[in-house]
Amino acid sequence: MDSPTDNQVHQRIEQIAGLWTRSQPAVAAYLASLVYDHHDAEDLLQRTAMSAIRKFADFDEERSFTSWAVSIAHIEVLRYRREKSRDTRVFFSDEALEALAQAHKECETEPDTDVRNALGRCMQRLRGRSKQVVELFYRDGKKLDAIADHLAVARGTVGSILHRSRKALRECVNHELGRRGVGQ
């Protein structure tokens, strides 16, 4: 078998870079919804990117790249769970992870723009401590202990607020996307 030319290699690199750039926000959101620690989610995103690059030759261009990348992220989350099996910060059972991965696979459209727009609208509806905790955790990358210190509340309170806020945002985004017929 002939080795690829420099031009072919360059084209392949550009192709995966473009696909990853468009899919990365959805993969990051998927990981953030499953992994409690922001830094661990970032590490998993990097692992997923590296795996996608290594496995790109196996990518079926008839499929959605985002769905394919989310399935790689799913495998990385399972590895992470095995590594952190004693860590209480991982909340989802294997069955829940499978259900979430399946839901992502069933999406026929690339959700980046629609989901981001819906999430933006839903974030505007969050108020008070909920909004503050979500922004400190996701936007500023602060850990729960730092947020608890900042707000002068117990760490468990911050975790509860974050959990309720995630649920509210998830329901709001699903409602927004359903109302607009996205992914249906």
Q: How would you describe this structure to a colleague?
A:
This protein is mainly alpha-helical and 184 residues long. The chain is built from eight helices and no strands. The chain has two domains: 1-108, Orthogonal Bundle (Rna Polymerase Sigma Factor, Chain: A), CATH 1.10.1740.10; 111-184, Orthogonal Bundle (Arc Repressor Mutant, subunit A), CATH 1.10.10. The protein has helices spanning 6-34, 38-55, 65-83, 94-106, 112-125, 128-139, 144-151, 155-180.
Provide a quick synopsis of the model.
Helix 1 crosses helix 3 (65-83) and helix 6 crosses helix 8.
Task: Note the topology.
Blueprint: H1 6-34, H2 38-55, H3 65-83, H4 94-106, H5 112-125, H6 128-139, H7 144-151, H8 155-180
